[in-house]
Amino acid sequence: MTNRITRQRLLLSVSSTLTALMLCASVQTQASAPTSDFSTKPPTTDTTSSSTYVTHFWDALALEPQNAWSQLRKSFAWQDQQLSAQARVRVDQWIAHYRSSPENIATITQRAAPWLAFITQQVEARNLPGEIALIPFIESSFDPSARSHRGAAGLWQFMPGTGDALGLVRNGHYDGRLDVITSTQAALDYIEMQADQWYEGDLPLSLAAYNAGAGTVNRAVRNAQSQGKSGHYWNLQLPNETMQYVPKLHAIAAIVANPERYNVSLPEIEAEPTFAKVQLSHALTLREASRLLDVEQSALTKLNPGLLNGAIDPRSAQTLLVPDETSHEMIARLSQGEPQSAQVATSAPDTYRVERGDNLSTIAARHNLTQQHIMRLNAIERPDTLQPGQLLTLSDS
């Protein structure tokens, strides 16, 4: 994808620059043998000194404390884009709208606290622009239990048919659209697949299709091209909601990128996910899990909105999220004396045997992988060609 290539080249360039500067710092350290660290000494006024340059370099790295917001900003890719005057007006209108209700931004971003670090990591792992991690701000106000009057549900607001097509299990006990882990994987799969299938990697067009459907966007592209226009998102005539979709994302990302400029306060959110994943092979109620883990049941309910009746059934879902401060010893108690059946998920197994009813999306979500990763390792061209009994390789090793 064009976006990925550009981003990878940028990362390579930055990495090379950092490496050179670090080597420079190493040489300077050996030559001058300073006896105290840079943070405790004011910079020298000799601007010709290479040690001053190194000091400033390391000081600059330490300026911003690492949290979920700083991690997200690092992965932003759209902030320096040169938009047309008309597109800029559309974005600025939404910046003004969000700024007019800072209390709403505070509420929504606070609601994002359990999920933002995890989503950012998943977006980064795919080399997608960090702005994609803010789609739930637009879709659901970062409420994983949100339901629309049209039937969409979850953080990413999947309609039932779309969720079914992406392999999100939905029954009376469990709704994968409300499960943040599986729905996030499905949403990113969907965005990437549509970008690759229809739009030669053009993510704004894929996001428009995420909102309005590929058929609507494809017709708009053809109409624009018939009028001699480029067919890019900003040139299209689309349903009003879709016309506002990408400008909204640009706007909220601009505010997150520079909250001081817009007089907005963002809540403190840890740089790492605040939950651990526990794989279960047996049914368990959240009430019982609460007792075994010595964790409030309300905390487990909040982390597992996809469990509709307060219990996990491995036939529908195998992963239970628990607060990250829960000890491994407590987690082992979930197995009622068999610690091996409930373990914190740290890595995927090497292989998996496809069972009846499996699809690529659910297998990927179950093992914290992407569909594209599994397809690449197993030379799968179409996700719908899996067969019961098929042995899949899940690891490069």
From TrEMBL:
Q: Which residues form the signal peptide?
A: 1-31
**What keywords were assigned to this record?**
Signal
UniProt family annotation = Belongs to the transglycosylase Slt family.
Species:
Halomonas llamarensis
In terms of superkingdom, the source organism counts as Bacteria
Q: Where are the transmembrane segments?
A: none
Domain named LysM: residues: 350-394
Q: Which PANTHER family match?
A: MEMBRANE-BOUND LYTIC MUREIN TRANSGLYCOSYLASE C (PTHR37423:SF2), SOLUBLE LYTIC MUREIN TRANSGLYCOSYLASE-RELATED (PTHR37423)
Which InterPro entries does the entry mention?
LysM, LysM_dom_sf, Lysozyme-like_dom_sf, Transglyc_AS, Transglycosylase_SLT_dom_1
What is the protein name stated in its UniProt record? Transglycosylase SLT domain-containing protein
